[in-house]
């Protein structure tokens, strides 16, 4: 069904559903869990209305949901699925098999804090815990970016040089349930950008092959090496696809990091996802008051742009990592993003000080006042030339 | 970039994401030789089907039934002919121990093997030329004395082995017990004639009217032939040791039948005939008596009831259908009459079961009964006539003493059949005599070729336990009945009583065969293997191949094998710790084998110059 280019005001969940619709997915597998459920509600309506011709399969659990997605992808279908929080965890077994069999399944994640107790709020731990399973992964900060990232992820993951599944993440509620302006493209633009999907080795009874056979121990390393090559090989593809996206749709994103007001900045925040929107406001306010502060928002965490993060963060004196995830007993004894940032900086000649902030936990908003408080800590560290401590629990300290 | 500069060696090149050709294809199995996870290996190990084992000449019964199933009648016929010369005869007369042993009998009804054999035998009879040919000439001359079942069989096998065989038969017509002991309405003479013709076509010379001891001596045989098989049978009827046995009208079973068979009978039976004896010959005599014009035929046995009679139950049943009366538990103590038989004196008697001098205990003190008859036919067994035999080769049963190979001492004389009397001293049945003749012929052949005689000591795994098969695959299905002439119409004629199977009936009956313990190419293993690693090379016995490099030993094929020919053989012998698994670090030409090769190449000690070591 041909769609005209139009401006709408939608939330992140609907944006993701719209992207799946534009991509004309063949199979959708669903199992309800808040907050991502809204995406599946929207898609169910589209299929029911005849706007989208797809198999819509409601599984009996997330494990089945991903299993069905795996099987459907093996037959050569373009598959869309998704989950949140503990649902993401319940399907954990399938992440490595799907990427290992090189099936470019796309999964939408609307983050939700892991239990216990039940907490609907956003925290990135659900998806981040799967970050080394061979899925392309990145966070969007609003509905428009979510829509765009979903569309690009299909193109990147299905590229014959890559063939990897993708997790396109957005913060629960901050992105998934807050409506923002979003431009939906003309169907013709999408047709130009995203060719029909064709897997090179689909299951076909006329040409029987084995998918996922048992192998000998020595056959594991070459397959892992090839998966590693695919992940690294995705990096130039990601850059190329972002360029083409900009040409066709007119919106240009840096594939790896968004730098906001970093010119002349001494200290920067390093974060992912929806809190980047608040951070932009806070940075702008503090710049107006003379503080040399900026924002570096990581857009793609897998494959991790190590060199780019090194290059960008080395420009500053102090980096404040805003975690929004749990890394209990981790390097910083706070979140897991700190380690990713520090590791990228290890080989830098001009290594900045790095501080980690446990903020936005349990789905709490990080209010402007807290960004000011964190900026103060960063500037203090810059002045003293050393950090007060590695991790601050924002809101729980003076 | 961590993957920069990496190189995957050729021998570890695996297909994209491990997506490989199906394991049904060679390449697919080479790539993933997962067989070394196996602890049990399925092995096709054919067992001895009980029918083959029970058969007196070990016909490959399961084998020919299987061929009949597939419509390969000529192959089936040729398979029988390996073990016996005349399926057309045994297909009519055999007491079919195979059917008694048949495992299907425990399930519903035994396979009607004899009827299928007869179908094949008749097919062989109809062929313009037999499928069997004489072997390459050895230049050795062998005499076979006697042309009954054992002699016929020995002559047949010796001719197949290339020896020049001469059969010496004392009667005017060849056939021995086949002709003289089996009535026409069981075995029509033309069938036997054709089989003897077939024997002659193999190059066997048959000399009739030649009696050993009279026309030819022991020394003549030793001088004129390289070897000799004595298959003279038991020719002399036993007496009942009753007073008046010399009276006119007293007949003996085998001579009675023999004279009718040879066409030399002059007997005219009176209206009332008694037959003494409870065996197969007695039954044949009773039924023949009806056909020779007797009005009332009574069979008198020492056995206390029908079940104790040493006969084939079906024949007894058919005899009773024809109207023969039975009297049990009686023995003839005297035969009364003025010159001719008028009556029998019967006294209570019982069979003691002791196979020696006096197996029958007669109560002579009892009053006894008088039984009026016009003729009496005595059919209580027979004994040998061995006046011509050197005394050293006679045993205490009055038959020939042979060693385990059927040989008379260190001479080149062998003996087979009734004259040897294996087992309990009872006369052999046709098929046992045939088997005896076959085994002796093979031993004669070994002696003539200078080979060592080997006693048969092989362990035979006869599959008799239905649990070793998967009975789920065999729905109950009754046997195909053989048509019989009605008793009223048949009992006065020489027409064959039991009718032949049609082709459809033979196939239907053969289809009931379980193929106990023997692969019959049913494809079940091929279909149930979940991997799959069973290769179907041909639709024939034992021709599946298990790709052991790939088989994980899940046992599904073993459990689902209907016939029980698949066995799980442990790869590890846990008692001795011996690793039999030839796939562990193995093995195949696949990848794992390459790695094992590389592992073996690693030196035991690290080199001193570790930095420059490559």
What does this structure look like?
The complex is a heterodimer of chains A (398) and B (614). Chain A has 398 residues and is α/β, with parallel strands linked by helices. Chain A has two domains: 244 residues, Thiamin diphosphate (ThDP)-binding fold, Pyr/PP domains (Rossmann fold), CATH 3.40.50; 137 residues, Rossmann fold (3-Layer(aba) Sandwich). Chain A has 13 helices and 16 strands. In chain A, the strands form three sheets. In chain A, strands 3-2-4-5-7-6-13 form a seven-stranded mixed β-sheet, with helices on both faces. In chain A, helix 1 runs parallel beside helix 7, helix 8 runs antiparallel to helix 9 and helix 11 crosses helix 12. The mean pLDDT of chain A is 95. Chain B is an alpha/beta fold. In chain B, helix 3 crosses helix 17, helix 4 crosses helix 7 and helix 8 runs parallel beside helix 15. Chain B is elongated, with a radius of gyration of 32 Å. The relative contact order of chain B is 0.17. About 3% of the residues of chain B have low confidence. Chains A and B meet through strand 9 and helix 9 of A and strand 1 and helix 20 of B.
